[in-house]
Amino acid sequence: xxxxxxxxxxxxxxxxxxxxxDEAPGADPASAAAPPSRRAALMRSAFIIGVLFVVFVVIxxxxxxxxxxxxxxxALTPQQFVVISALGAIxxxxxxxxxxxxxxxxxxxxxxxxxxxLSGIGSSVPFGPWNMGVLWVVVRxxxxxxxxxxxxxxxxxxxxxxxxxxxxxxxxxxxxxxxxLPTSDTGTAWVIAIIxxxxxxxxxxxxxxxxxxxxxxxxxxxxxxxxxxWVMGKLHRTAVPDVSHxxxxxxDQLGVVIRQxxxxxxxxxxxxxxxxxxxxxxxxxxxxxxxxxxxxxxxxAVYALVMVITIIPLSPGGAGVPxxxxxxxxxxxxxxxxxxxxxxxxxxxxxxYWFVPIPLAWILLKLERRGKSMLPTTAELRASAxx
Length: 387
Fold this sequence. Notes:
single chain
């Protein structure tokens, strides 16, 4: 996603995505999700702080008066705050249902709890995919068996990215219904939407083909191996990833989950994206952006574009970059006179999507891991993998 606070990794890189065999040293959740070195963690932390400083201290103040943003927040009524909070909670619930679809036996309460932990820890602890390892240990503590927990959390990353690639396809329909055919003003949005829609169709078709046919999986593995070997050769790199093995590992470990739960999980993930579009739309309306200035189609299109662009982890923890993209795109469509109101609306939306999950994640971890350290150690990860 790049989910808020998550640096999404492929299924093979998720905690425990490698089966518990003797095929390779370190092929277990502990190795895949072990925290990085102190130096790497410090570098990622410094990078996040740098991104936040550049976005919120250097760039935005050049165009936006923060006092106007504060005034917009102060104008919120208690009733409006209750409404936006309720919508945020509903979005958490719907997003968490993706985990309920992927992890058999997970309750409707622990689904949203899983997403809050994944998002909040990823946003506040800059350790890359280690937040998936933290969630994996929590889920194992709830009684979910090793293989279902491993496969479900690994597949969440795949489903989340596919749902984001699907959004522009949906945005094309919304744009066509609300704004008509492409114009000089909306041409770029249409191009990105169409490219993303094609990527969604291709990625989905490849996953279905790999899962359903071993012959196709063999061909894709061999073809991918040749392409990667050629690219690495051009880069003068001697270490070449084993693409063929990764394709078959994906098929063997996640194929059953995809066949049984993949469609439901993808549908739920797409629904969760729509829920967040509603939160963003209401936040903008509450801050004074009328329908005549930013219509639902334009809001949906911008949201889809930002979600696709940020699939690439532009900053660890998803910090700063989405805000800048939302504000710049909306301001281009609405005009400079609405920049402060747009900034306030985006900040209000991000409050529920990115910021509030951080303290909630730590509170939930404290409650779930009573009597243990809040963050699992490598030794605990290994012990959970063996149990």
